[in-house]
Amino acid sequence: MSPLPEGWEMVVGLEVHTELKTETKLFCGCANAFGAEPNTNICPVCLGLPGSLPVLNERAVEFAMRIGTALHCVIQASSFHRKNYFYPDMPKDYQISQYDVPINGPGFLDLPDGSRVSIERAHLEEDTGKTTHIGGTGRIHGSDESLVDYNRSGVPLVEIVSGPDIRSAEQARAYAAELRAILIATGASDGRMEEGSMRVDANVSVRTGPDAPFGTRCEIKNLNSLRSLQRAVEYEAIRQIELLEDGGTVSQETRHWDEDAGKTQTMRSKEEAYDYRYFPEPDLVPVVPSAEQVEQIRTTLAPMPAERRARLIDQLGGAPTPAQLDQLMAAVEINLDGFITAAIDAGVTPAIALARTANELAGLGDGVANLPVDDYVALLKLEDAGELSATQSKTVLADLVAAGGGDPASIAKAKGFEKLDDSSLDATLDEIIVANPDEWQRYVDGDDKLTGFFTGKVMAATKGQADGKAVNAALRQRRG
Amino acid sequence: MKALDIAAQVASKERSAREVLDETFAAIDARDTEIHAFLSLQHDRAYATAASIDERIARGEPVGPLAGVPLGLKDNLCQRGETTGCASKILEGWRPPYSATAVTKIEDAGVVIVGKTNMDEFAMGSSTENSAYGPTRNPHDTSRVPGGSSGGSAASVAASMVPLALGTDTGGSIRQPAALCGVVGVKPTYGLVSRYGMIAFASSLDQIGPFANDVADAAALLEVLSGHDPMDSTSLDQPPVSLLAQLDAGVAGMKVGLCSELLAGATEEVASAVRLAGATLEAAGAEIIEVSIPELALGLSAYYLIAPAEASSNLARYDGVRYGVRVDADDVTAMNTATRTAGFGDEVKRRIMLGTYALSAGYYDAYYGQAQRVRTLIISAFARAYEKVDVLLGATTPTTAFPIGDKVGDPMAMYQSDICTIPTNLAGHPALSVPFANDASNLPIGIQLLGPALSEQKLFQAARVVEEGATK
Question: Which residues constitute the domain of residue B227?
Answer without folding.
Answer: 3-245
